Amino acid sequence: MLNTFENAETFHHRRLERERHMANMDIFSNVIQHDDEAAILSVVDALSGFPLAKKEEVTTIATKERNHFRLYTVCSATAVLLVIVSILSAWGGMNKEEKAIATELVDPSASRDLNPRFQRIFSLILDWGFTPRSQLEIETSASRMALNWLVEVDTDTFEAEDIRARYALASLYFGTQNVSDGFVWTRSMHWLSEFPVCLWYGVYCHDDEWIRVDRVGGLNLSSNGLVGHLPEELGLLGLDIHTLDVSNNFITGKIPTSIGLMKNLRHLYLGSNLLTGTLPKSIAQINILQRLFIEDCLLTGTIPTEMANLQDLQAIGLHENAFTGTIPGRLNQLSQLVVLYLDDNSLIGTLPPFPTSLVDLRLRQNTLSGSIPSQLGLLNLLQTCYLDTNCFVGTIPEEFANLRFLQELHLYNNYLTGSVPSLFGQFQYLRILYLDGNHLGGTLSPQLGLMQSIESLFIFDNLINGSLPASFVLLTDLTQLVAHTNALSGVIPEDLGNLSKLKVLKLQENHLTGSVPPSLGALPLTELQLHWNQIEGDIPSTICKLTQISLRNLTADCADNIGRVGCKCCSACY
């Protein structure tokens, strides 16, 4: 009985020690995997109930455990390799659609890249050469968004030419608005829809070609809230497009050089934007270009002489930019040129010869210098000429007498000398003559009274002397006569009261004498300035009555104690 109890107790004791030993062996196994001999000895010491093993014995045990672990690792790696080989073998037997489906289960974004349609369009875009691969790899780029739209949404487009046009326009769409910042197009009807591009807002196609293929003949998105850069992909519209108008928007960046590939482009309007950089020389490759307007931007650099290659060019509008350098003399070769606007830039130098076909020449507000060349007299079709606000010197050429169709002549704010030429009396169509802000002197010729169409005559701030010609009474269309700040003398002609359209008469700061003619009260005057003269007497009551009708600005030398003129209705006394 005792032996039985002792045997049971011994069995129970041994079982507890074996369980404790197994638990510690788990710890021991983990330590062995790290091959740390000190840690192994420490764990062995912790195994109570077992004699402390010698270092050599422990090392032997560790070695055996490591060998078992390495064998297990090799077997596991072999199994994984066999699985991979099996998967690759199965993948190789799949067709493209099965591969796309299998990939999508693992990575939906990767499935798009492996999609046959994606691969085809991706390759087309790279082959066209307008979009670098790096741009297509940026998910947020306009190019990539256009690509994704073609693959995921516009799935019914298959023809390469259709894809080409739709990709170009989609790139423009994504590149010129910022939805997150609230900048969206004002009008975008049918854009990025399933409809042919010829039905998209602002897109025009050739005749009925839109029924067959998306070939863009014109694009007009002016005043449409475009923000951002013009993409190089616009060049994909290539030989089809005839008109491109994105004026009056908020477009920034440089002008795409790819525009030069639009070989059939006739009208290019990019003005009133925030474009920077220089004018691309590639534009000179558009041989049949007729109208070029890139005004009111921030363009710099010089005007390319290569523009002389555009023999069909009829109108150039590069005004209100920051162009420097001289006006290219080769522009004289543009025999079809009718309009040339280079005003409001920083151009320097003298005036070159211009084509005789010019009708409208505007060079105002530059730093052009030298004398006004007599060759301008050869432009016998000229109707409008703006040369004001420059640094021109010398006299007004007598050759101007040949400009018989001239309607507007702006020569103000220069350093011109001599007298006001009597030849202006020959101009039957001249409506506006601005000669103010120069150093013109001498007297006014009676021949000036023959300018039968003149409406505005500005000769103020000069050195003109003598009296106002009596022939001015013949200027029946005159609405503004501004002759202040000169050295005019004599009396104000009574017959000026017959100029029934005269609204503005400014004669202050001269040496006029006599009294104010009552006949002026019959005019529809809004301004009458007579101060700082030697005029005497009272302002006629007929004129004072005008202050209750139309006259808003009436001045005279009527200040208390020093004034020679009595005026109870003047708006200001001097």
Automatic annotation (TrEMBL):
<dbReference type="Pfam" id="PF00560">
    <property type="entry name" value="LRR_1"/>
</dbReference>
<dbReference type="GO" id="GO:0016020">
    <property type="term" value="C:membrane"/>
</dbReference>
<keyword id="KW-0433">Leucine-rich repeat</keyword>
<keyword id="KW-0812">Transmembrane</keyword>
<protein>
    <submittedName>
        <fullName>RHS repeat-associated core domain containing protein</fullName>
    </submittedName>
</protein>
<dbReference type="InterPro" id="IPR001611">
    <property type="entry name" value="Leu-rich_rpt"/>
</dbReference>
<keyword id="KW-1133">Transmembrane helix</keyword>
<keyword id="KW-0677">Repeat</keyword>
<dbReference type="InterPro" id="IPR052592">
    <property type="entry name" value="LRR-RLK"/>
</dbReference>
<keyword id="KW-0472">Membrane</keyword>
<dbReference type="InterPro" id="IPR003591">
    <property type="entry name" value="Leu-rich_rpt_typical-subtyp"/>
</dbReference>
<keyword id="KW-0732">Signal</keyword>
<feature type="transmembrane region" description="Helical">
    <location>
        <begin position="71"/>
        <end position="91"/>
    </location>
</feature>
<dbReference type="GO" id="GO:0009653">
    <property type="term" value="P:anatomical structure morphogenesis"/>
</dbReference>
